[in-house]
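[audit] Reproducing an earlier prediction to check determinism. Same input, same settings, fresh worker. If the tokens differ from the archived copy the diff job will pick it up downstream; this log only records the rerun itself.
[audit] input (183 residues):
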Amino acid sequence: MYIYFLLLWGIVFLYSIISSLLKLNEISSLIDILYKYLESATYQTPFYQAAGARLIKKDNYSACLNELLYNFPRIRKYSECHLDFLRYGAPDIENYSSAINLYNRLLMKKNYLIESFKTSLNPICSLQTIFLLPGEFLHWLGFSRIGYSSRVLNLACWIIAYLLNVYSNEIKSLINSIIKNFI
């Protein structure tokens, strides 16, 4: 039993580290794509506001824009604000200003992911994740989580699993006797 628990703990520990690293790597590549796009043009505001801002494009602007628009669904996965959109056919100044906002948001999200990676290196957090597995499974099935009751549910599930393991022979003999009496 302890070997299985240690194996489960090791799997959860490695999974949390690897998934944090993969998310960090993905967001870093998305930030690089945004940075290349932002460097492919210059945002210029005139001295007087009536003319409006204009975008001075470099030679690689179209290629950077296409790469950015291709990766936009991945960027949206990390951007919690749904106000900034990048889209084909939109004015360049609109895409550029949205890209500036998305770049700043992804930089902040990267800070959170770095903190999440540091947390994943703590083995106690993996134990907490193991303890929360029954509630996460029920949440995956569609049941809602309520703070205190989900903790009680997690504890009850682990106690039941432990008792089933301890009394497995007795449970097997009980089931066999029930089946023999009905047959």
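[audit] rerun output stored. Observation attached for the diff report: The first strand starts at residue 41 and ends at 44.
[audit] end
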